[in-house]
Amino acid sequence: MRLSKTLFIVCFLLAFNFSYTQPNQHFNELEIHPINSIAPQSTDFSDLEFLKETLKNNRIVLLGEQSHGEGATFAAKVRIIKYLHDELGYDILSFESGLYDNYKTYQQVNGSNSDPSPIEDSVFKIWSDSKEFKPLLQYIHQQKENGTPLMVTGFDSQSDLIFEEEFLIDFKALLGDNLKLNDKENQILDEVFYGGPEFLLSNEVDSTFFFSTCHKLIKEVDQLIDKKETIEAKVMKQSLIGRVALLQWEMDILNENEVKVQNPRDLQMAKNLIFLSELYPDKKIIGWGASYHFANEVKSYKNTALTKDYILKFDSLQKSEEPFDLDKSMEGAVPMGQLLKDHFGDKLYSIAFSSFEGEFGMLGFNTISLDALEPPQGSIEYELNEQGFEYAFVDYKQLANNQYFYSSALGNLPVYAPWSKVFDGLFFIKTSYTPSFIYKNESAQTIARKASDPVKSQKLKYVINEADNTGIGYANIYVLNTSKGIATNAEGAFSFSTEGLKPQDRIVLSCIGFKNDTISVHELNTTAEFRLKPEPFQLEEVVIRSKPLSAKKIVKLAEKKIEDNYFQGHSQQEVFYRVKKYREDSITFDETASVLVGNRTGYQSSIRPSKKLTGKILQYKNILNQEELKNAWDGVGSLWLVYSHDLILHKNNVLHRPAYYDLDLEGITAYNGERVYKINFKCKKPGSYTTGYGYPSPLAATGTIYIHTKNYAVLKFEILIVRDKYKLKRFPNYELDPYGYSITQTYTEYQGKYFLNYSSELSYSRWNNTKTDTSYRTLEVRELVSTNIDTQPTVELNLPISSIKIRSIKEDPDFWSTHNTKIEDSVTETYKKVGLGDSD
C-alpha cells in the first residue's frame, strides 16, 4: 500500500524527532572522568589516575581517532602515551604504519636529539609532520637515552619509502649465502616490489611465479630462524608476508574483484599486531591508528534518518560529486579491532575519540568546520557538552551491549549504535582543531591575491632558427661562467633580467642541434631576435674499437656515469615554477613561484627522490585571485612531482630500466661545441616500474634521450606517455580518451657538473560525454626552470619540498623585476603537441 505524501512526512518527522531529541537516560549510569588537559607538556597526571583501575587487566590499549585530521586528538594521545609508559608499564608503541619501516628506524634512535628523528621517515606523514606529534618524538628519544625505552613498532602492511628502497636489499643481506635466487626471480621481485602489481594483472604465469618466489623466500628465512632465532629475521619474515597480502589485495582492487571495505588490510594489520605481541610476550602494547580500524562489531549500527541527513551535510561540505552511501560502504566490514577482540578478549581495551565543535582536516588538506555537523541531542557528545566538560573520559564497560545512542566517534558523523560493543571507552574533547605542520610560520603574511603575471611586464626576446625563421624551443640562455640563466618557451620566446650585470658581460645562447652564439649584455638589451645556425646530424666518428657502441650500451654508460657527471654534494637551486590549468582555452588555475630547492645528497637515484629534498618559497603569486588552496600539494605545492619524474633522480624510467625499451641510435648532433647522441626509445612493457606511471598501465611510452658522446651525460629527455580509455564508476557517461603526459627535461653544466635546467610536465585529456556526444579538453602545465645554482649554500633549509606551500611569505614588490622568469607556451600549440589540436 502506498502512503499519502502527508502521512509519509508525518512518519518521517516522528522517526527523525525520536532520533534527534529522545534523551538517553542510561547516560546517567556512566561514570565520567573529567580530564584537566590534553597538552603533551602537562606532567601532572592526577586526572589520569583512574586508568590504573580501568586498565589493570589490559595488555593492549588502542588509541583511535575520528579521522586522520584531528590535531587535538593527536595531542591528547601523546599525553596518554606518556602516562601509560611512565605509570602503567606500557613499553611498546605500535603505529598504523609499516612494520618493517618502524622496526628499522627505531634501531637508529640514539641520544636525545629528535630533530630530525629517524622515526619521521617511518610513521606516516599525516602524523609525523605535525606539531602535535613532535613532543612524542622528543619523548621517545629521551626515554631511550634514559634507559627506559618506549619501543616503536608498526602494525601496517602498507609502508613508505624505507620499505620500497631498502627491504629487498636488507632481506637478501639477512639471508646471505642461504639465499638462492636466479636472475628471473630477482627480476620479478624488483618489478613488483618497486613498481606495484600491475605487471601481474594480465599475466597469470608471472603472477604465479611471483608469489611462488615470495613463498620460497619465506621458507628460506624460516630455515634461518630455526638455526638461530633473531628478532630481525622474524620481523623481516612477517613484513614479507604482509607485503604479499597487500599486493594480493591491490590486485583484487585493480581487477575489480569485490573487496569489503579494507578487510584484507585490516586482517593483515590484526595479524601483525598479534605477531608483535608474541614477539615481545612480556611487553604491554599501545596502538595508534584510526578508530575505524580499532572498532569491534561496527556492523551493529543503525543508519537512521538523522545520520542520512548529516551525510548530506557532510557531502555538501566536502563538495562530493556523489552521495555517500553508509550502508554500502560498511557492508561486510570486519575491522582489525573485531579480530583483535576475538584474540585478546578482555586483555584489550579500545579508546575512541570525539568532539562537539571546532574543525578537522587532514594535514595539508582543506579544513572542515563542525558547525554544520554539531552532534545532536541524544548523543554522548551533546550530553557531555551540556554537562560543561572541556575534556572527559567515559568507560563504556558500565553500559549494556544493547544500549543504542548517537556518537560521532567515526569520521565526525553522528551514528546510532550500541557503542559499548564497538569501543571500550571514549575520550571527549569539546573543541577539535586541525593538526598543523611542524614548520609553519604563524606570523608571516600570505600572498594570494590578484596580481599581474610576473613575466608580462618584461620585454620578450626570441631565439630563432636561422634556416627557417622558426622559434627554437627550450634553448638555454645563461651568463658565461655563472649559473644564472633561463630557457626559451616552445616558440623560442624568453625574458632575461640583466640586473647587476655589466654591459660587457657575456651571454651564451645554446640548444641541442644548433651552433652556440655568445653575445654581450649590451646586445641582449638592445636586440629582440637572436639567430642560431642548425648543426646537421653527423655520422659516428671513426673510433678504433672491436665493436661500435649500441644505443643500449650508451644508455647503460649514461646511468653508470651519473655519479661522475651530476653534482653529488650539498647544493641549492633557485627555480621559477608555474602551474597552470585549462579547460579548453580558458584558464581555471594559475600559480607562479620562485622556490629555493635544497639537495644535501646530490644526484642519487631512488624510488622517491623528492623525500630527500627541502625547499622554501621565495615569492608566490596567485594570478587569478583565487582563494589560496589549503591543500599543501596543489598548485606550486606540487613541485615535488617534478623531481619525482626527474630522469636522473628517479629509478623508474628508460635510463635505469633500458632492458624494457627498444632503443634506436638515430645519429649524432651538436651542443655547446660538443657531440651528442640522439637515441629514440619505445617501452616494451609500460608500467610504474618502467615509466613511473602505474595503474592503469600506459598504452605506450615513447621518446628521445640525448647523451654526450664523451662523458655520457644526459643533456635532454623527452617522453610521451599515452594511457588507455578510462571511465569513472561514479559517472558512467564520461570517458577519458585520450589522456596522458608529455615530459621534457634538459640539464645544464655548471662548474663541471650537471644540474636539472628545465622540466615541463603536461597532463592532457579529453572528456567525452557518451550520452550527449560532447567533449572538452583539459590541460595542466607544470613547468620548472633553473634561474640560479649555489654549490656552497649558506641558507638553512629544513622544510620538506612536499611542504613548501604550508609556510606563508611576505611580498617583495621588486622581486620579479630582478629575477628571471620563463615565458609560458601557447596553449594552442601545447594542445597540438599532445595530439589534441582540434577542438569540439
From TrEMBL:
Keywords: Signal. GO terms for biological process: response to antibiotic. It comes from the Bacteria. Residues 1-21 form the signal peptide. CDD domains: Ere-like (cd14728). This is Erythromycin esterase family protein. It comes from Fulvivirga lutea.
